[in-house]
Amino acid sequence: MSEPSSGAVDVARDYYNSADADAFYAAVWGGEDIHVGLYDSDDQPIAEASRRTVRHMASRLDRPDPDKGLTPKTRVLDIGSGYGGAARFLASEYGCHVTALNLSEVENERNRQLTAEQGLADRVDVVDGNFEDLPLGDAAFDVVWSQDAFLHSERRAQVLAEAARVLRPGGQLVFTDPMQSDSCPEGALQPILDRLHLGSLASPAFYRSEAAAVGLEEVGFEDLTFQLVNHYSRVLAETERREQELAGEISRDYLQRMRRGLRHWIDGGREGLLAWGVFHFRR
Questions:
Q1: CA–CA separation, 78 vs 100, rounded Å?
Q2: What is the pTM of this model?
Q3: Are 197 and 7 in contact (CB under 8 A)?
Q4: For position 27, what pLDDT does the model report?
Q5: For residue range 172-214, what is the model confidence (pLDDT) as tens digits?
Q6: 3-state secondary structure of 10
Q7: Which residue from 9, 280, 281, 282 is spatially nearest to 132, judged by alpha carbons?
Q8: Residue range 113-155, pLDDT digits in tens
Q9: How far out from the chain centre does Cα 45 lie?
Q10: Helix, coil or strand: residue 164
Q11: How many CA within 13 A on the CB side of residue 264?
């Protein structure tokens, strides 16, 4: 029998199922890749930068060796898949079969609709599920992929254990996650934690330790913390620029709380309290 999800996961599900959150991420973040982007200019569109993150992560897995690269034979599990932008990219670019698992039924419905419209329903399966207790078999996937989702769990060690469980021997885990820096003082990120209803964030040291404990070997960590600041600065600027337009379909209370939350992320990144980048492990 599956275990009940943690309180933080339940909070995240309710948040991403809300009409305000759905409208905001679809309108401001582009509705495809609703994750942290990689920017090469201050005014780069958010959707374009977010897709660059997907391409960059895929490049770590795309190797000439057909047994190790992304091919039509590769089975990918995207956990915390949001609107499924990464799943559709991997399916269309490489022909992979992708299982897109996500806790928000609202996001999953939008994912199914977009996937069908793009003719990819035969290569992308959208699954309602909780990454703390994956409803999937052992050693079923070549790649486990995740973008900025693990922070929503208070059982992150369990999330890594589940990822390792469903990976085949030699399989790869690639993910990003907003983290606290290894040197972050206790209590320094309380405004962020309060907004997310979390007791803590993970750190790079935490993920290294817990991944090793479940048999995952680190291939590399690309520290891109400066892009976290770039991304939230762009989202804040876009939110403020389009505030009157957005207020027509999103509550002003939500927009006010979003602006306040984005400033906390920006300040934390600039003060060296946060970390973000691409982790890559092999089973």
A1: 5
A2: 0.92
A3: yes
A4: 87
A5: 999 999 999 999 999 999 999 988 888 899 999 999 999 999 9
A6: helix
A7: 9
A8: 999 999 999 999 999 999 999 999 999 999 999 999 999 998 9
A9: 19
A10: helix
A11: 17
Helix (H) or strand (E) holding 168: strand 167-176
Residue the block writes with tokens 């956990």:
79
Coil, strand, or helix at residue 15?
A: helix
Amino acid found at 91:
A
Q: Cβ(144)–Cβ(167) under 8 Å? A: yes
Residue type, 212: A
Separation CA 17–CA 6 (nearest Å)? 17
**Rounded-to-integer distance, Cα 187 and Cα 268, Å:** 12
**Orientation of helix 225-241 relative to helix 252-270, angle to 10°:** 150
pLDDT band at 63 (very low <50, low <70, confident <90, very high): low
Question: What single letter denotes the amino acid at residue 57?
Answer: M
- Tens of pLDDT, residues 67-76: 567 999 999 9
